[in-house]
Description:
With 147 residues, the protein is α+β, with helices and mostly antiparallel strands. 25% of the residues lie in helices and 18% in strands.
Amino acid sequence: MLAARIAARASTAAIRPRMATRACSVATVRLGAHGPAEPFVGPGSKPGTIPTELEQSTGPERFEYLRELEGKEAFDMKPLEPTHMGTPAQPIVVQSVEDVRYVGCTGFPVDSHDTLWIRVNKEKGVDRCPECGCCYQLKRVDPPTHH
């Protein structure tokens, strides 16, 4: 009986493929080959000094700070100016660097109803406000730091 078990295990082990193994050091080298990081990580401060905002900020905060130093806006925070009632044939175009953007609709004319947040999706095409029927369409644009 024991011999039958050992033979059964040996036969299934021969059929089952072995798991691929790779040293972690190889994965680290491959992942580390992306080149220098973008300027979204500051250099840090020198030992014994208090860091400035430029030296210690990272991520979106650093991006916003660097754009402010250049005299440019980091994020488009201006409201949409609806010049017409968006229709399926002529929707209000919303620009975005992503495939999805949230738009606050207040109706047409402006302030016709309370703000309703609509998820405008690139794949869907035209999205409509459930309150007033105004249509919005997403237009994808490249980010300023696109590489």
